[in-house]
Amino acid sequence: MPAEPLSRPRIVAAAIDLIEREGADAVSMRRIAADLGVGVMSLYNHVPSKAALLDAVAESVLSEIEFTDDPDADWTDRVRMQARAFRQIAHHYPRCTMVVVSRQLRSTAGLLPVERALATLRGAGFDGAEAVRVLRMFIAYIVGSLLREVGVTPTFAPVHRSEVDTAKVDPVLFPETSSLLPELAACDHEAEFEFGLEMLIQAVAVQRGRRGR
Amino acid sequence: MPAEPLSRPRIVAAAIDLIEREGADAVSMRRIAADLGVGVMSLYNHVPSKAALLDAVAESVLSEIEFTDDPDADWTDRVRMQARAFRQIAHHYPRCTMVVVSRQLRSTAGLLPVERALATLRGAGFDGAEAVRVLRMFIAYIVGSLLREVGVTPTFAPVHRSEVDTAKVDPVLFPETSSLLPELAACDHEAEFEFGLEMLIQAVAVQRGRRGR
DNA sequence: AGCGTCGCACGTACGGTGTACGTCCGTCAA
DNA sequence: TTGACGGACGTACACCGTACGTGCGACGCT
């Protein structure tokens, strides 16, 4: 009867679908089983626990990153491309992003981006310790940016929800904040992301130029 | 009998204590009530729901930031100080950090840091749009950094857990990663935080110098 | 062909969760 | 004294993750 025979990948896919449709809070083993038209306990023949399933979700999402790396390009362009690849999957799986970030994974899915980035930085002339430091800095910025971007859409938000309810800010307690409410309310996520990215790249380039080459 | 008469602050404090002692997963209304020596449903006379309680936890933690702002100092020093203030509370409430980050709050507790930062940046000569952009960039970096720092300690970690099990990395698939395992395994969080912070400050300073003053 | 084994789907059951609702009691206003 | 009211609490319900047992179909071996 079941054309597809209930496998771990099918379960993970159902979980990702459910998270994207109804948010991470809606995830339950019973719900996933129902979506698959299957008994609850059947899931445990393929997944040891709910926590492991969420780990698998994170790994699966992360493994869908598409790197289009040009080895001949400038290292700054390669860094840009890799950073944008992260943002792209966060855009593709917005509700899953929090899940991915909140569980640190020790699998090979998260290792490939690290390898690529380290290779790029080493190729640009950074020594090992520098490459690791720079990589960590970029990751911190990217993770923080993506969290802001998807955090703005906790539930499906039809209206652009500002970072602060625009009416509630007391102008005498928070003069700057209230005078900048228009700027704070609007947020072009892509432009913001690119802005910080360029800042970091520029800073790294300056430091690289100062030392040695 | 109860010397203290069960108030919302006492409930929030108990929740924070519990999170720091046993992690966010251990939080349940029954558990908090038990810790307070109180019936479960009594909590609902002061807190409308568990979600609201966690929001209150986030707000409470955030409101404990101690800013020691010197209006006469250089704007770079003031930015440094404000960034470190965030890191300090994340250090003080490591297990709560994920809770704070994962729920975006629209209360005044999160507004005061924003006001301070905007005032600092405006004072340094940035116009409104620039100040907001720069602030968002710093927040993204800080949030990402703190998540890495506390993510390394999901449960109480007696040993320094490396970002990747040092034995499992295939040297032919991941040559850079495996050759840099010592650097990847060790992480001086304060040094890493300061490194990225300096990079960002330097980049912002350069951009500010390029335009106008 | 017959038989044993094994993998996997599934039902049941248990302890735990958030919280709606009703009850009771101590305190204060009139 | 009495009335109202706020808060503490018990009970109850729907839902959760998952340990355990049962049954069934496919397959390997003799």
From TrEMBL, chains A, B:
**Family matches, as Pfam families:** TetR_C_1, TetR_N
**DNA-binding region spans which residues?**
28-47
Is Oxidoreductase a UniProt keyword of this protein? no
Keywords for this protein: DNA-binding, Repressor, Transcription, Transcription regulation
Transmembrane stretches in the record are none
Domain HTH tetR-type: from-to ranges: 5-65
Question: What InterPro entries has UniProt attached to this entry?
Answer: Homeodomain-like_sf, HTH-type_TetR-like_transc_reg, HTH_TetR, Repressor_TetR_C, Tet_transcr_reg_TetR, Tet_transcr_reg_TetR-rel_C_sf
Please give the name of this protein: TetR/AcrR family transcriptional regulator C-terminal domain-containing protein
Lineage at the top is: Bacteria, Bacillati, Actinomycetota, Actinomycetes, Streptosporangiales
